[in-house]
């Protein structure tokens, strides 16, 4: 992930007879496509891991062949790293409506551009789970029905929580961990204090940590686009609880954006 958009080339004026040689920034279409593909990579790669590989069974000697929670957490982190370095230079590499709104609240992204980003992210995520469903349709008999009955890796509480945690736990997790995620993003991509070369890696490792800590609680959202994408195929219970995984990650991101701007980007006294 990098700062939201490259600076556009400076136009020559009547007093500046030397044409600007700076390359033009990416087009609006390219920016939105980058958000689409980045979110697609995130959802397709990570949710595929959760549905196909997390609990694959055991070998004849009893050794587990599944990757478990650790593998799923790494899949989320690795897909963010891949997307950040592949598409981040084009769009800033948000891939998450909560991140987009958090950056806007911090004054690091224009509010007028948030709607286009969010639409691209939601569509990219939905295409990602649709591709997974297509793979499952040609899989073993009953695979898709079993995946749907199991919630299709959707987020949730009570019966949809891997560890049986309740609604309050999900609320606290989504607000605090999304806020933490946005704080890290704002810090590592800061225009003067950040480290652009390592930003994608740091952000990916942070997302891995978040999943390691919270998958047992609510299957970890911190990303409304990811939650919408899985709830589409997760059945009625997943759709009924989806609102919380849209609202509370956004609340956490907005709080983080405002707090970061006040605490770290405010003017210092003499």
Automatic annotation (TrEMBL):
Q: What is a single cellular component term in the Gene Ontology annotation?
A: plasma membrane
PROSITE patterns recorded: MIP
* Compartments (UniProt record): Cell membrane
**Lipid bilayer topology:** Multi-pass membrane protein
- Where does the record place Basic and acidic residues bias? 1-17
Q: Positions of the region Disordered?
A: 1-22
Task: State the UniProt keywords alphabetically.
Answer: Cell membrane, Membrane, Transmembrane, Transmembrane helix, Transport
Recorded hits in InterPro entries, A to Z, give: Aquaporin-like, Aquaporin_transptr, MIP, MIP_CS
Pfam families from the xrefs? Answer: MIP (PF00230)
Q: Can you tell me where the transmembrane regions are?
A: 28-53, 65-88, 118-138, 165-186, 198-217, 242-264
A GO term, aspect molecular function: water channel activity
Domain of life from the UniProt record: Bacteria
- The main place the protein resides is membrane
PANTHER family hit by this protein: AQUAPORIN TRANSPORTER (PTHR19139), MIP17260P (PTHR19139:SF199)
Q: Which family does it belong to?
A: Belongs to the MIP/aquaporin (TC 1.A.8) family.
The name on file for this protein is: Aquaporin Z
Q: Which organism is it from?
A: Microbacterium caowuchunii
């Amino acid at each position: 992930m990098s700062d939201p958009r490259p600076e556009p080339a400076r136009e020559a004026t009547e007093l500046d007879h030397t044409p600007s040689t700076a390359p033009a920034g990416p087009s609006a279409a390219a920016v939105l496509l980058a958000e689409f593909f980045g979110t697609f990579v995130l959802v397709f790669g990570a949710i595929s891991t959760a549905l196909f590989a997390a609990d694959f069974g055991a070998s004849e000697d009893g050794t587990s062949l599944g990757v478990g929670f650790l593998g799923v957490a790494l899949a989320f982190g690795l897909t963010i790293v891949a997307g950040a370095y592949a598409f981040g230079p084009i769009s800033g590499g948000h891939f998450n409506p909560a991140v987009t709104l958090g950056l806007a609240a911090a004054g690091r992204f224009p509010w007028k551009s948030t709607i286009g980003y969010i639409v691209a992210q939601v569509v990219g995520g939905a295409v990602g789970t649709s591709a997974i469903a297509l793979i499952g349709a040609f899989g073993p008999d009953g695979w898709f029905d079993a995946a749907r009955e199991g919630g299709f890796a959707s987020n949730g509480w009570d019966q949809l929580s891997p560890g049986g945690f309740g609604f309050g736990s999900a609320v606290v997790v989504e607000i605090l961990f999304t806020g933490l995620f946005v704080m890290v993003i704002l810090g590592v991509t800061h225009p003067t204090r950040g480290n652009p070369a390592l930003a994608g890696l740091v952000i990916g490792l942070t997302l891995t940590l978040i999943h390691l800590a919270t998958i047992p609680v609510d299957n970890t959202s911190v990303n409304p686009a990811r939650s919408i994408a899985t709830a589409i195929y997760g059945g009625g219970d997943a759709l009924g609880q989806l609102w919380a995984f849209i609202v509370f990650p956004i609340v956490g991101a907005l709080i983080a954006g405002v707090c970061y701007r006040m605490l770290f980007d405010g003017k210092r006294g003499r």
